[in-house]
Amino acid sequence: MAICKINAALNLVENTKVGTVLGAQTSLEAKFMAELGDKNKIPAISFSSPSSFPFSTSRFTFFVQIGNDQTSQIKGIAALIELCKWRKVILIHQEDDLVHLYNDDAMLNITAFLEEKNIHISYTSAIAASCEDDEIIEQLHELKTLQTTVFVVHLPRSLASRLLYTKRDWE
User: Fold this and answer.
1) pTM for the structure as a whole
2) What are phi and psi of 16, to 5 degrees?
3) Strand (E) positions, the chain?
4) Distance, CA of 14 to CA of 11 (rounded, Å)
5) Per-residue pLDDT tens for 44-81?
């Protein structure tokens, strides 16, 4: 999917002579678009989160990021939970060696913002990206036995989709 977007952006810049490139959502797409914008001296605007950008953006003169960082999203979730007066939540996150450092920062932020609002994480469930659907069903069985019914799900889109589709099919 990212390769198709990159090819489309290249085609537009080289053949159509567009004035702005808009839409990078992943860090890989954003890096490519930043380089493309600088090379062609046109603005490249990305919706990717600044915290997901693994390199310095200051070297790219024509690159702009307008996505919310993860901290803003986590603060919003904590505020919503506080507004609804929920005091206990279950946190579901990805457990994977490849994203371990990313998840550590996110997990620390989630924990800190929830504690700041006096919201207790009553249980934490880690789902590996490589797990099978029957393993997700096993996790769901375990979560169903708990009394807490508010879930904070911090998963990549693909894994979150699998979790929700598996839950739907399981019921």
Assistant:
1) 0.61
2) -100, -15
3) 21-24, 44-46, 63-65, 88-94, 120-127, 151-154
4) 5
5) 877 776 655 555 667 888 888 776 667 777 888 888 89
